[in-house]
Amino acid sequence: MDLIGQERCEHVFQGVLLLSLAGAFGAGWIRESISLAYMVLGAGVAVGFVICTPNWRVFNRNPLTFATSSELAADMAAGSTGKGAASGKAAGGKAGASR
Amino acid sequence: MSVRSYLSEQWSRFRETKFRNLAMQVASLGLLLSGALIMYKSCMLITNSESPIVVVLSGSMEPAIHRGDLLLLSNRYSTPLVSGDIVVYKLPGRDVPIVHRIIKVHEEHDTAEVDILTKGDNNLPDDRELYGDRKWLSRDMVVGRAFAFLPRAGMLTILMNDYPKLKFALLGGLSLLALVAGD
Amino acid sequence: MHSAGTRASILSSYAIGGVFLLAIAIAVAPTLYAPRLPDVSVRVNSLAFLRYLPAEECDQAYIALDINADLRPLFHTNTKHVYAYVTAAYANSTTHVRNEVVVWDRMISSREAADVKVAKGWVKYSLKDWGVGLRGAPVRLWLRWSLMPRIGGLAYGGIEGEPYTMPVEYTQ
Q1: Same domain, B69 and B145
Q2: Transmembrane residues, as ranges (chain C) (predicted)?
Q3: Alpha carbon of B26 to those of A41, B11, B21, B23, B91: distances in Å?
Q4: pLDDT tens readout for residues A30-71
Q5: Which residues of C144-164 are buried (b: 16+ CB within 10 A; e: fewer)?
Q6: Number of domains in chain C
Q7: In angstroms, what separates the C-alpha of C30 from chain A's closest C-alpha?
Q8: Rounded to an integer, what distance in angstroms lies between the CA atom of residue A60 and that of residue A55?
């Protein structure tokens, strides 16, 4: 999963969890059954896990582009800000991946 | 990753840990434990009860309360103890607290002291037999009145009570995990 | 969040949070609205005897009650049981200012069983005083309930029934 995919994945899971919480509470309230409420919540969580745990292609649409060493050398020589930001992003990505 | 390779990795990490790191982890484990203790003692202060959380060990209050259920107690009352309240009491000379329901309250004229009689919902007779040579419970034997209920939350305590070895296995395992685990 | 393992662990902690959140919602929600009070009437139908019980050195009265209590409004998602009970409350000027004795009780486990109708039902527990203070005592009857939740706070309530005055002399 790439960085943007990771963020999206987390948001998707939060959304699924909140929706299933609301559904679980509503169903439990109407049918007056706590076990039903927890079954609904469990089903929602299971769906969330299926969506978010495997490394689906949807979450890999923004691969990192790493700066080449020659580009980095040019950066350092010029001290330009635009490319500095790009290389910083790459470095951040690396740090994230190596943890 | 197999369990074995995971364990061997953890072990090698543990062996590489410097003394300073080890000391840090022992300290943070201690912090965690003392934090829990402070929480519990604060609960005691707030509720004015010597044991604000009790695990029900007997089935004498079934079907309302089962073995392993958790009760939160308070010993600070906005209203006086009345019949029907679920209370926890400790008899002098007996360690195990008892969770039962009040069925009689008699408040004395001059001293405002109360004589209390309790009974378990699932028991036929009242608790006079348990009291021994006394006829009534007095106010100071009541540890607290139940105000909230968590089902089955004390099951682990019940299991540890029934199998004492489990307690040590669990404690040892948890401490080891806290020491070995990276973060 | 980069590997499936860390994702699974982070998502599990979210899920556990959800489990607790649902429990809190279920425990708190019924307390946010005031339920309709049950329709209740309770009175003493008849008195079998009022006597001195030498074995326990106290007064004892044996009464029959008429109970008409529709406790169905107390049942909601978070109600496990309702313990319904009748207390006799009285004061006597000599020894005790507040006396409360449970004379009848019933554990109600479902809404279907919550419409309690008892006609001339002899009490489960005879009314025994602490000492000898029952003669002529004005007794206030209460039908009370103790709501046992599936999870969360315990709730108590009660409605007063018709008062009753004990005979001035022992009947036996």
Answers
A1: yes
A2: 12-33
A3: 38, 17, 9, 5, 40
A4: 999 999 999 999 999 999 999 999 998 888 888 888 888 888
A5: bbbbbbbbbbbbebbbebeeb
A6: 2
A7: 10
A8: 8
What distance in Å separates the CA atoms of residue B123 and residue B60, rounded to the nearest whole number? 6
Q: Could you tell me if residue B94 is inside a domain?
A: yes
pLDDT, tens digit (0-9, with 9 covering 90-100), for B82-101: 999 999 999 988 888 999 99
Pairwise CA distance, residues C81 & C75, whole Å: 8
The whole-angstrom distance between residue A75's C-alpha and the CA centroid of its chain comes to: 31
Model pLDDT for residues A23-37, shown as the tens digit of each residue: 999 999 999 999 999
| Number of folded domains that form chain B | 2
Tell me the C-alpha distance between C33 and A19, whole Å.
24
Q: Which of C6, C9, C22 to mutate to test the interface with A (most CBs of A within 10 A)?
A: C22
- Whole-model pTM above 0.90? no
- CA angle, residues A32, A35, A36, in degrees to nearest 5: 65
- B window 83-122, beta carbon within 8 A of C: 83-86, 101, 103-109, 115, 121
Share of chain A above pLDDT 70, in %: 80
Residues C66, C54 share a domain: yes
Mutate to test the interface with C, among A17, A18, A50 (most CBs of C within 10 A): A17
Residues of C in contact with A25 (CB under 8 A): 22, 25-26, 29
